[in-house]
Fold:
Amino acid sequence: MNKYIITVENSQANNAGPKAKADVEQFLTETDYQTLPLKVTLDPEDKSFGAKLKKIYYGKYYIPKMLQQSQTDVILLQYPIYSAYLTNELFKAIKQKTKAKLYLLIHDIETLRLFGGDKAQSQAELALFKQADGIIAHNAKMRSWLEEQGVNVPIVELGLFDYYNPTPLVEQRPFAKSVVFAGNLAKADFLKKAATLDFELTLFGPAPAKTYPEPLKYAGVYPPDELAKHFSQNFGLVWDGDSLLTCNGVFGEYMRYNDPHKVSLYLSSGLPVIMWKEAALAEFIVTHNVGFVVESLTEVGNVLGQMTPEQYREMQQNTLALAQKLRQGHFIKTAIKKLDSLEG
Structure:
């Protein structure tokens, strides 16, 4: 049986999107999947006439031709591909030019992340999901949401995004009660109010402010594969919005449904995680004792203050065991096997 992964790349660097999809390809090609040699590279920010012509060429000629030649039985599409036109043409070509089953690995649901109240765009996205023969959703919350929207196809839960991370793991970290935050700092509006925090917070990422007050410290920007080399802290922070008291805004609310790739970055680096208690992954973090959850960032200093070195050591050991699974592609390999068995 011929099984293929389709990934449409975008040209942005130093962000998690390409890394997440590249890791899925790497781990699944260690199984019975192979990459379909479909070289489509998009820049989501390019709105030029040339970019539009390129999409038409891809959609009307290149993609249908490559699919027709592939003789594939199963296609796993990494969704979304950041072009509504190409998405529709790709779905159409898969259905018309192949007899393959179509699985979707959801990286983002744009209805939840971007579309807001745009009913037409939301309905169009849900219509695509309903065409799939199987879906890999992030977690139980995302799966429930899809089912509530009438997506009645087989759905399995990923659990966590795996993360290829070649940096050697640190077996024991001195417990200094320190925290790191990695991400696009221009979007981390809560940092503007972080001078009142009572714990040390080291920042990595593009678009830093000119200066940061204590207890914040900026430490540079690095590609995703290199970040772990620079982590010497005890915990990784996952937070979104403009408030210290809760996660808010579109992306903060999105955490109720998604698995932030940042969680996998930290865990695969051996760092336990601090995150919002209303996040979809909060239960996983608590159940597996690989970090702790809070309602507000104002609680973090108190939790760290009461934590003993022994409690941290246990948390870190759990995280190291989980890191090995993430580095080996455990979660995507398990999810695709489960989907294959449901469909088989």
User: Anything to note?
Assistant: The first helix runs from residue 16 to 28. The first strand starts at residue 3 and ends at 6. The radius of gyration is 21 Å.
